[in-house]
Amino acid sequence: MRIVPIPCLKDNYAYLLVTTGGDTAIVDASEAAPVRDALGREGVHVRAIWSTHHHWDHVGGNLELSKELGAEVVGHSSDRDRLPGLTHGVDTGDVVRVGDLEARCIHIPGHTLGAVAYFVEQGGERAVFTGDTLFAAGCGRLFEGTPAQMHASLSSLVALPGDTRVYCGHEYTENNLRFAAHVEPSNEDVRRARDRAATLRAEGKPTVGTTLDEERRTNPFLRVRSPEIRTTLGIPADADDATALGAIRAAKDSFR
Predict the structure, then answer these.
(1) Assuming Cys at both sites, which of 23, 153, 175, 219 could form a disulfide with 215, CB separation 3.0 to 4.6 Å?
(2) Are 66 and 85 in contact (CB under 8 A)?
(3) Would you give the end-to-end CA distance of the chain in angstroms?
(4) How far from chain centre, in Å, is Cα 161?
(5) What's the CATH superfamily of 2-253?
(6) Is residue 53 among the annotated active site residues?
(7) How far is it, in rounded angstroms, from Cα 144 to Cα 235?
(8) Catalytic pick from 54, 76, 107, 111?
(9) Where are the domains of the chain?
(10) Average pLDDT, the chain
(11) What was the pLDDT predicted at 254?
(12) Is 55 a catalytic residue?
């Protein structure tokens, strides 16, 4: 399989997931024009659009592209009335296919109630498309869900194999790592990740495609039991994980 990130809007990513035979799924068709241009460059055959959630900056190209390409639109079943063009509703455990690739769907509420991830593996390679739930070194704002829901969703994602590469919805990595360094200043993995992200961005390259193992070492929202993070933010040592995540999220919301 081959994954092609497509910069869209200000800092979004859409993706092409391309099979060995050229059959392709578009993940998060943020806007039509950049995706259309990428399709022309790649010379692939689109079979489906997989949407991670209903927010306009992830689905703005759904109707236009699905009509042009004759592609089905996949999203969580609960978003049937608010995800443009949805033709195939899914939930945890469902499988969607494009060519010789299968994606396992995982319901991950928190950022929105209908958020869904798509996990694919082939030939020893693994990837998960997480939208705005799990970012490189971050997680999405809790627009619709609760800290407990977000914690459960992140836990379901990090239960995937550690070498799984994470393809998220935005290029937020440098700012996320700046916050990570603020709340856990002794974390050397965060320092190395910041250097890597800065180098990639200076070269005009995306930072997406970190592994879940890397996220476990650098992402504050996966490190809610870190004593240093709890001390920095004044989170009680005996607070449960969801409470700690909520406090970390609140701190990130006001971080500048």
Answers:
(1) 219
(2) yes
(3) 38
(4) 16
(5) Ribonuclease Z/Hydroxyacylglutathione hydrolase-like (3.60.15.10)
(6) yes
(7) 23
(8) 111
(9) 2-253
(10) 97
(11) 96
(12) yes
